[in-house]
């Protein structure tokens, strides 16, 4: 094999686990559905897969703040404004928990964040779509958070402990988000003709991209099998997508919106809804950076980060001065740096 | 308006529960109390709107969270106060927030000032939070039980807000030469709006002050507490207490700087495009 990094990792793994006892214990933990913890030996590829998945997930939460952040200042009622602000704040919190989970694998937050704002790291393509109307706050909650829940509930049992535990916390909040999105759409569908039209038009735009959030069809998803063997992933992309569609149809009926798929119909034999082919060419286009907002999403966070550099520098300088003075006796508690606000 | 039982009041902490309490006890605000509550509600609403602008733009994720948190608390105060105010006139919090024009907004001018850089936001928040602490501490003893209940809940929250501003004031004041310069500039820019916060003629419709005695807090009575606290914090941060002349004020009478109009245009645009709709 030509890849020198790969060879290095393989060699390192042997060094790490010369008698193979680490691997045996790892296999046993996986086989018995137990949790792998940060101090346990784990294969380098398992670690790498997790870091990639968790940091992508964190990045998605962070970038995902933007399409909804777009409506905070314009929310049409104060109650909706409060709910939306709390939601976007929750997403920032999710990003932070997930960064912490990834850090337990030895990758530091600054590196992950740097990869995000320099466009090297991936995040969920769904957030490259734009939110031209208020109804998009409903569609994102109902469809995007809804798809996220289908994806993430099984991750609460992911074999890596810190990831699974972060997901438990996150999933609770995501289910609020989905309900709130559903309520936004319900209110619109019970409203004026203009509001109903706004809701339907928005669902038309978000439905297919939300279905594509589960990733390519199983046949085209080479990494999935290893992740399933490692019990990071519990269900295939297509299984999750089916579960999502089955969940949406009755909810769409309650809302009174039409899901934009002429092939959508109940299949008695399968006990599931059949649905039409998705436009994977569009998915690939958006993934390749040609979505409606790819460039804006990354540059916005980068701009915020760059504009904030002097603030973080001040916090670091202050913390350094404080620790230099640290031994001097009567420092007031209210002058101690508040670590939760410090740049990491 | 003083007919609420204590039990009803102890739960009257959210806009929804306030609306319910008012309905159940059939005890809306009278006009003068409502106008007082409206001024306080407008202060909180306009500042919350400003803080909402930071979300996704903050210097670090923790600050996206912290500024949104502060904004959310203030939005909660605004909703409670506007709900109570609106009870005098048969109007909802949203009628008041979305369907009044600039001249009808009675917030003091500090709250509509732009975010500027992070230091200016911290300067504005420091002044605001120190003012709110004094205000809500006094107001929690108001003879009006609903105002007292709203204030008691708000007090705990603004206490945390001050702590946040204070920490950043120290960091920016002592951090680097650049942060020091920016923090001082932020304080200088915001300080001109301090006097207005403590101007008594700012209680609308209450020129002789008697009807709201024991209910409203006279702004001038809060000045000493502010002066005992904020200049000391500024000095501790190695910064200079500004001495710039104060702005003309008049926010309570509907006079605003040029910043309020665009805030309202943005905030109200969707609601006004669909009058009568519910969301
Ligand atoms: Fe999330
Ligand atoms: Fe969410």
From TrEMBL, chain B:
Top-rank taxon: Bacteria
Pfam families: PaaA_PaaC
Name of protein: Phenylacetate-CoA oxygenase subunit PaaI
């Amino acid at each position: 094999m030509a890849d020198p990094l790969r060879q290095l990792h393989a060699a390192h793994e042997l060094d790490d686990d010369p008698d193979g006892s680490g691997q045996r214990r790892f296999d046993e933990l996986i086989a018995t559905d137990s949790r792998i913890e940060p101090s346990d030996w784990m294969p380098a590829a398992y670690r790498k897969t997790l870091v990639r998945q968790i940091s992508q997930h964190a990045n998605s939460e962070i970038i995902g703040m933007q399409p909804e952040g777009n409506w905070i200042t314009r929310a049409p009622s104060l109650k909706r404004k409060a709910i939306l602000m709390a939601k976007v704040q929750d997403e920032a919190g999710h990003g932070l928990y997930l960064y912490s989970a990834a850090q337990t694998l030895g990758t530091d937050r600054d590196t992950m964040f740097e990869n995000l704002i320099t466009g090297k790291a991936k995040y969920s393509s769904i957030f490259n779509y734009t939110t031209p109307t208020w109804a998009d706050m409903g569609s994102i909650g109902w469809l995007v958070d809804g798809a996220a829940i289908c994806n993430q509930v099984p991750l609460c049992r992911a074999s890596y402990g810190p990831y699974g535990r972060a997901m438990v916390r996150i999933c609770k909040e995501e289910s609020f988000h989905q309900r709130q999105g559903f309520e936004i759409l319900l209110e619109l569908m019970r409203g004026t003709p203009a509001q109903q039209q706004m809701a339907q038009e928005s669902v038309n735009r978000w439905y297919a991209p939300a279905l594509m959030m589960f990733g390519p069809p199983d046949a085209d998803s080479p990494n999935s099998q290893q992740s399933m063997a490692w019990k990071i992933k519990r269900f295939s992309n297509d299984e999750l997508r089916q579960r999502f569609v089955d969940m949406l149809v009755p909810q769409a009926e309650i809302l009174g919106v039409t899901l934009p798929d002429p092939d959508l119909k109940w299949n008695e034999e399968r006990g599931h809804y059949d649905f039409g082919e998705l436009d994977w060419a569009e998915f690939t286009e958006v993934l390749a950076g040609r979505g409606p907002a790819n460039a804006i999403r990354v540059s916005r966070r980068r701009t915020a980060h760059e504009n904030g550099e002097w603030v973080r520098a001040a916090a670091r300088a202050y913390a350094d001065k404080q620790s230099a003075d640290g031994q001097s006796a009567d420092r007031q508690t209210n002058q101690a740096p508040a670590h939760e606000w410090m740049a990491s | 308006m003083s007919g609420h039982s204590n039990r009803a009041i102890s739960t009257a902490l959210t806009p929804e529960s306030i609306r319910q309490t008012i309905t159940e006890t059939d005890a809306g605000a009278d006009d003068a109390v409502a106008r007082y509550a409206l001024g306080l509600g407008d202060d909180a609403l306009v500042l919350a709107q400003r803080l909402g602008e930071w979300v996704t733009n903050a210097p670090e994720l923790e600050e996206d969270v912290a500024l949104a948190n502060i904004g959310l608390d203030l939005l909660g105060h605004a909703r409670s106060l506007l709900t109570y105010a609106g009870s005098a006139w048969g109007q909802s919090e949203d009628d008041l927030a979305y369907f009044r024009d600039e001249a009808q907004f009675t917030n003091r001018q500090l709250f509509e000032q732009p975010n500027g850089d992070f230091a200016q936001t911290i300067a504005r928040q420091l002044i605001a939070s120190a003012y709110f602490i004094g205000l809500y501490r006094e107001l929690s003893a108001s003879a009006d039980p609903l105002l007292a209940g709203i204030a008691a809940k708000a007090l705990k929250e603004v206490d945390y807000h001050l702590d946040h501003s204070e920490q950043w004031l120290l960091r920016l004041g002592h951090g680097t030469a650049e942060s020091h310069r920016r923090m001082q500039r932020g304080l200088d820019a915001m300080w001109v709006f301090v006097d207005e916060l403590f101007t008594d003629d700012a209680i609308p419709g209450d020129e002789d002050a008697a009807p709201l005695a024991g209910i409203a807090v006279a702004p001038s009575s809060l000045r000493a507490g502010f002066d005992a606290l904020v200049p000391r914090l500024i000095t501790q941060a190695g910064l200079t207490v500004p001495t710039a002349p104060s702005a003309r004020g008049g926010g309570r009478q509907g006079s605003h700087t040029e910043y309020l109009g665009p805030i309202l245009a943005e905030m109200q645009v969707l609601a006004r495009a669909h009058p009568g709709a519910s969301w």
